[in-house]
Amino acid sequence: MELKIGLVKGDGIGPEIVDCAVKVLNKALDNSGHYAVYEELCAGGTAIDKYDVPLPAVTVEKALKCDSILLGAVGGPKWDTLPGHLRPERALLGLRKELGLYANIRPVKLFPALKDRCLLKDAAKIDIVIVRELTGGIYFGQRGRNQTEYGIEAYDTETYNEMEIERIGRVAFEYAMKRRKKVTSIDKANVLESSRLWREVMHNLSKQYPLVEYNDMLVDNAAMQLIRNPEQFDVIVASNMFGDILSDEASQLTGSIGMLPSASLGNTKRGLYEPIHGSAPDIAGKNLANPIATILSVSMMLSYSFDLDVIAKKIDTAVEKTLRNRYLTKDIGGDLTTDQITEKILEYL
Ligand code: NAD
User: Fold this and answer.
1) With 0-12 CB in 10 A as exposed, 13-18 as middle and 19+ as buried, what is 215?
2) Fewer CB within 10 Å of terminal CB in the chain, N or C?
3) Which of 254, 237, 243, 336 is nearest to 293 (CA)?
4) CA atoms of 316 and 109, how far apart (whole Å)
């Protein structure tokens, strides 16, 4: 099978880590009867420099013709002062919307070899999947500024409808059915009307999944529980903003933000796969970035978009062996460069 993959290398460490992941993917596909062809797609800061917009129409057009997209990261200080609609991060929101990718799946797993890097001393087994709603909520609601007698006021609006909530809830319950059968829904129903609707819809949906243990949790409590007792969680489902924040917090349970992959999915097999971290301008170009989050994103792509679970597993195993044998980048307590750890993963493959 031919796998047509769009590559958004992006900005900062993006190009470095995507190049590593491509090497790993090519090696994993060797002698499998499958092969990848790549189409480079321009988005983010580099697109602003070239086309004056973060997401040129040609990028969307090409992306829609790919089977799946691998993205490094976008953004950086160079573009930080641009108005909101022209910032590199708009490219991400635009791509997700254009491709209809409403579900962001973020596995949070502590590799046994990195136990000493986990913030929690006694963490036994951290294996959580965060399902984040991706195309609604406050990141897409009405926003603006008004002049008032107290100076300028600014507002953003959190809006969710029943369809959007049920759709993301269903992804979470289906996931839980394949795992430890527990869903925790995050909201702020004691304060926000949008959260009260979120809770009602999730409750109703949970009745369709009697085998799944269901509970809701206020987001402030969830932020605490993730640190206090992360083992209690199996699948967490949250709105766009709550999921964004909680998954960054959860990344620290795994040792480094450089370890966490993600998949953004919709109703088709086409997905967008990317590490959860940003473009890390502070280490860009220094050969210091941990490429594992991007490499594990490729593994998710093989599994979800192409049903190539066996090859995906080969990549996961190679990463695990690399870590177990203490080949580590700086962020996880070692001294290997981006290239060196990639070479090790290729060797184990
Ligand atoms: P960041 O995730 O880029 O970096 C936070 C810290 O983690 C930095 O110290 C960085 O060096 C470190 N880090 C991140 N990835 C790493 C890796 N793979 N290996 C080792 N260390 C790593 O977050 P930030 O500094 O808040 O944002 C930088 C830029 O990235 C901003 O412009 C932001 O808007 C953008 N951003 C993009 C995305 C995306 O493209 N999906 C996501 C988040 C932030």
Assistant:
1) exposed
2) N
3) 254
4) 12
What is the pLDDT at residue 152?
A: 98
For the question of residue 244 being annotated catalytic, the response is yes
Give yes or no: 216 in active site.
no
Mean residue pLDDT of the chain comes to 95
Amino acid at 201: V
Of residues 9, 109, 188, 344, which has the active-site annotation? 188
Q: What is the reported pLDDT for 193?
A: 98
**220 classed as catalytic:** yes
CATH number for region 1-101+262-349: 3.40.718.10
Among protein residues, the one with the nearest Cα to ligand 1's atom 16 is 258
- Measured from CB, residues less than 6 Å from any atom of ligand 1 are 73-76, 89, 92, 257-258, 274, 277-283, 289-290, 293, 331
For the chain, the domains span 1-101+262-349, 119-254
Structure-token match 């917009």, residue found? 53
Q: Select the CATH number that applies to the domain covering 119-254 from these four: 3.40.640.10, 3.20.20.80, 3.40.718.10, 3.30.300.30.
A: 3.40.718.10
pLDDT value of position 3: 98
Please identify which of the residues 220, 282, 309, 335 carries the catalytic annotation: 220
Least confident interval from 39-53, 86-100, 303-317: 86-100
pLDDT of residue 119: 77
Pair 56, 42: CB distance under 8 Å: yes
Residue 108 has pLDDT above 80, yes or no: yes
* pTM, entire model: 0.92
The confidence band for 248, taking pLDDT boundaries of 50, 70 and 90, is confident
> Ligand 1 pocket check: which of 277, 295, 340 to mutate, most ligand atoms within 8 Å of Cβ?
277
